[in-house]
Amino acid sequence: MTARVQQKLGSGFEAKSEPSQILEGIDLAGKVAVVTGGYSGIGLETTRALAGAGVKVYVPVRDPAKAEANLADVEGEVVSMQMDLGDLDTVRQFVSDLSEKESSLDLLINNAGIMACPETRVGNNWESQFAVNHIGHFVLTTGLLPLLLAAEAPRVVCLSSIAHRRSDILWDDIHFQSTPYEKWTAYAQAKTANALFALGLDLKYADQGLRAFSVHPGGILTPLQRHLPNEEMQALGWTDADGNLSEQAAALFKSTTQGCTTTLWAATSPQLSGTGGLYCEDCDVANLATDDSPRYFDVAPWATQEESALRLWKLTEEMLT
To answer: I want to staple 126 with a disulfide (CB 3.0 to 4.6 A). Which of 59, 131, 186, 275 is the partner?
Structure first.
């Protein structure tokens, strides 16, 4: 097994490569995938690209009417099934229903997420960003492990974000029970959790052929920003007073199709054969962050620690008991 090296490979792709470039020459006919959040934003483009390449794509949906409308022009085989990551009974039901339909699963794309939302509690008084972005996907992924392990060379891709660099896991108060809730810190630790979960999966199941990766898709304006007023996005430097992309953001931000390409690369690229547990960005493995790293690139060391990945796994299991 190739050593896990968190540094750029020189993949030959660009930050703004398109899906057709990533999937060129890769035979995905007959493969089966699950894409959470696969009917909105970059998740929809992930579904479109995979289905167009011959993959049967299952899309868990919280809003069936919206999903039907958004998926109407997607060519290929797409099956939507009810699920809400914030309601673990529906996640377990999705696992059960899918297990009756399929005997193996080649790709699981944990794409869905919420960002910087007002304080909300779900499940066992869990903070909602951690619960939806991490715990829901943990239950989904571990439930689907028998199907994944039955496939040849299965991969799991967990969508993280450069926002992970704002915060490690708040190990002593993950759910903001003793400290005031701060939406960006909550989002940041959830995105760190996504990276650590991919690493934990790889540590535990690589010897059975399952490889996992985390991905920073890049800056993209999608429905993920629905909780942010324009004033706040303007303060962040993303938009102008009229809600249009700022000059800086326009240079950096990707289209929704470009926003799904690192996901597609991590899910399918032969360049990643024999390795896993890595955090990827701009259609390549990311470098490990240093004091000199640019603000919007590279992966923080705390999101790459094997000990932290196993600690998070154990803590998540404890939350679920």
So the answer is: 131
